[in-house]
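Hi everyone, sorry if this is the wrong subforum. Our group has a chain we'd like a structural model of before ordering constructs, and none of us has done structure prediction before. Sequence below.
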Amino acid sequence: MATNDLLMIESKQLSLTKLNLERKIMGHSSIFLKVCFAALALLLIVIIGDAWSLAAAPPPLHITHITPSGTDVPAGRQIVFQFDKPVVPIGCMARQVSACSNFLGPIVITPSLKCQWRWLNTGTLACQLDEKSAMSPATCYTIVVNPGIKTLDGATLEKAVRHNFTTERPQIQNAWFKTWRGPGVPVIRLTFNQPVFKNSVAEHIFMAAKGKTEKRMDITVEPDPDIKEEPLGDASTDPEREARRVWLVSPSKELPLNTRVALRVNPGLASFLGPERGIEKRVIASFSTFPPFAFEGIECTDNNGKTLHIAPDRPESFKKPMQSLEAGGTGLLITGHRGRNQEKRHLHSGSGGRSHRL
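Answer:
Right subforum, don't worry. Here is the predicted structure as tokens:
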């Protein structure tokens, strides 16, 4: 009897232990479910809040264009930023940007410029430069517009906007034959769009005689005494670093006679006003040197005004009377260069400017 009672007691204890265990498990499950439901509710709140924020935020501000842009633009006195929507109220137009409180983000220009900021209209901002602060030629400018400029509804740029442009680089505007120092020594005046250094002209401009191969011939560079121009740079310490807009160039040694020659420029001309080098690569001028000096014959005009030419190796007899020399009826034909000290009263150009009537 005692044994049976003992078994019953143990059975009841096992049942109680099992029941307690089940209750604990159910309790833990309930806590887990509650935690899961709370997490899901929080996530839903976050999602709804973000969606609401996105729906309420205005569309971002954009810059439609910045001027100037590109390369070799004039070195002007204004940079204009055009936005895609009004940024300031009408009352801020034509006023300093500092008077408009929503101008929060910096506009960085490199190299720096002394901008006087103005709103040209409600969506157009301008950097105005006075005469002394104008852009420099031969210079590459980089602009960074950072977020911070806000519209009336609070919109701003999503990210920084970068822009760049390059002002006019050195180039040749005009080439003119000033004189000839000899039959193979032309002197040519070159005019540039800005002052360029003497040594860069000598390095990047040259002459080349046309033939089977074009051999480069160096040039001599010197100022034009007929042009009153103040040189730039320190020519007293380094004459090669002197800069001018007008230079005379001539071959360092006499060119071959009766030869077609090209005056060329290669990229690299250096400006006194900015660091950007010239990019021109072209023929500046083509010309022919004078042929060797030679006697070509006699030219005569008869009384009817007809011109006759007597070559030295084919003499002819004339039956018609000729006009007198004083009337310009007879003369000698020579080829070659006309020296500067020769008598010029009876010299007349012929045969493309390289034969002369004496």
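For your construct planning: Confidence is low (pLDDT under 50) at residues 340-358. Helices lie at 2-56, 198-204.
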